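Budget justification note: compute hours in this period were largely spent on complex prediction jobs such as the one shown. Inputs:
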Amino acid sequence: MKQSIVLTKVNDLVGSFSSGSVAGKVKLGSFKFDVKSIFRKFVIPLLSILLFIGLWQLGSKALFNMEADYKIEKALADQGAEAAEAMKACIASGDISCQPNTLPSPSQVWQSLQTLIADHKVISADKDAFAEKTAALNAKREAEGKAPITYTGRPSFVDQIFTSLKTVFAGFLLALIIAVPIGIIIGLSPVLRSSFNWLIQIFKPVSPVVWLLLVFMIVKTMTKDSNSDSAFIISFISVGLCAMWATLVNTAMGVATVDKDYINVAKVLKLKPLQKVFKVILPSSLPLIFTGLRITLSVAWMVLIAIELLAQSPGLGSFVWEEFQNGAIDSNSKIIVAMFVIGIIGFLLDRLMLTIQNMVSFNKSEAI
Amino acid sequence: MNTSTIENKESLGTYENGILYPSPVMLDLNDLKKVYPTPKGDYVVLEHLNLQIMKEEFVTIIGHSGCGKTTMLSMIAGLNAISGGNISVLGNPVKGPGPDRGVIFQAPSLMPWMTALQNVMLGVNQVFPHATKQQRKDIAKYYLHKVGLDGAFDKKAQELSQGMQQRVGIARAFAIKPQVLLLDEPFGMLDSLTRGELQDILIEIWNKEKITAVMITHDVDEAIFLADRVVMMTSGPRAKIGDILNIDFERPRTRKSVLEQDDYYAYRKHLIDFLEH
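Corresponding output:
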C-alpha cells in the first residue's frame, strides 16, 4: 500500500516534467529525467531503508516487551503481586530506574545522536574556554621552556571519531610504507617470492588481538623511558600489521603478473632495471596495488575498533566499550549510534580509495 | 636459392678477393635449433634452419600455425634463448634483446597509461640519450605524423582503436632506427580494411627507410604485396625453411599495380600449393 503511494507520487512528479514524452525520458536543460533510473537509484534504496527501520522498530518493540514481561515475572516471583503491579506501572510510566535494557528503538538512537552532538558542543565550548583561560599562562610557560598546560577533560564523541581516524590513517600509512616496497621486491623475484611465501601465509590469518599483544610486548619495552603516547603507537602499529597483508599480496601479484608484452617491450628497448620498474612494472600493477590498498584500509578500519577496545587507547572502539561497561539507560542507543558512524565512515573511506584508484589507474574498467 | 638472391643484390657491394664486400648479409640464421624440454622428453621446434636475409630486404614468412615462426622471430629478437646454431646481425652474434632489432608485436603492446607520444618517446629516449629533449620529441612526432596520427599525440594509448594503437606500434619501432625490423603478424588482429591501410603505411615508411624487415603473416596476399622474398616454413616439429619464393615486382608498389601483374597469380598459387600440400 505504502509502496504504491510512493510510486504514484514519484510518477506524478516525474510526469509533470515530462509532458508528452513517449519514452518517459525528457531533457530538462542538461539533466536527463528517466523514470526507470530514478526509480532504481532513489526510490528502491529509500524503500529498503524504510523497510529496515520498520523491521528494527518492530524487533526492538518485541524485545522490549519480552524484557518487560521478564522483569514483571521476576518481581512477582521474588516480591509478590504488589511489586509486580508496581513494576508494571513503573515501566509504563517510562521511569528511568526500571526501564528494560535491550535493543534500542530507532527513535531512541536518534535521540542519543542528538545527545552526543549536544555533548560535543558543550565539551568544545569548555575546551575553548580552557584555551582562553590558559593562553597567557601557556605563553609564559613556553617562554620558560616548559610544556604547555593541555585540556585533560573527557573527549566528546566527535573527538573520538577524529582520534580513530588519526589512528587508522597512521596504521594505513605504515601498511603502505611496509607492504608496497616489499611487495614490489617479492613480486620481481620468483626466488624471494617462494622463500617469503610461507611467512606471508602464516602471518596473514593471525588475529588482530594477537598482533596487538605482540606489538604491546615490543613497544612497552621500547617506550619505557619516554613519555610518548604508547597507547596510540601500539594501536596504530597493530592496525598497520593486521591490514598490510592484502596490499603485500596484491602488490606482489600485480608485479609478478605484468603483461609479458610490456616486459618484452622493455627488454627490446633495453630499459635499465629501475626504469623498467618505474616506467613499466609499477604503472601496470597500480590497479592491483590499489585494490590491495582498498582492502587494507577497510580491514584497518574494521580491526581498529577491536584494537582500541583492547588497547585502552582512545577512539570509537573505547567509546563503544566504555558505553557497554557504563550500562546507563542510553548506553545501548549510543553504541548503535557508534555502529552507524563506524559503518558510514568505513563506507566513505572505501569510496575515497575508489576515487583515488580511478584517478591513478589506467584501466577504468578494472576498478569496481 | 639463397645464392641466387645474393646475386640479385650484387649492386650492394663490390668483390674483394672473391668475397663480396661489404657483406650484403644483414641477418644470418645458421643451423638454428630450438628445443623445449617437456616432461615427456625434448620437443624440437626448429632444427637445421638456415636463412640469410640481405640488407634492405623485406622478407615475409608464412607457415602453418604452431610451426615455430614466432619462436624463430623471438629468437632473432633475443627474447627467446637459442638452443643450437647461431644468429648474427651484421656478423655479430645475437646474445639478447636490443634496440638494434625493433619488434612490432601482434598485440600493439603499448603502455596503456602513456600517451601515444610518450609510448614512442620511451624508445627514442633510450636510443638517443644524447639528443636534446626537443630533438627526441621531434623524432617521435615525425614518425607519429608518418603513421597518420597527427591529432592523437596526447591521447592515452587505451583511448585509441586497435588499428590506431598498431600505428603507434609502427611509429615506435621505426623511431628507434633499428637495423632489423621484426614484425610478428602485426595486422593479424585487425579487420581487412584497417589491415590494408596499415600495410600501405608500413610499406610507405619502409620505402623511405629501407630497414631490413622480417615479417610473419598468415595472409598470402599480404606476404606477396610486401615482400622481396616469401619464406615458407615446413610444419613442426623440427620445422625448417621449406621453400623460398622471389617476388620480382618493381618498387614502389601499389596494391592495384601488384594485382595487375601477370606473375601475381602464379606466386599466389605457389604459396597456396605449399601451404596445402
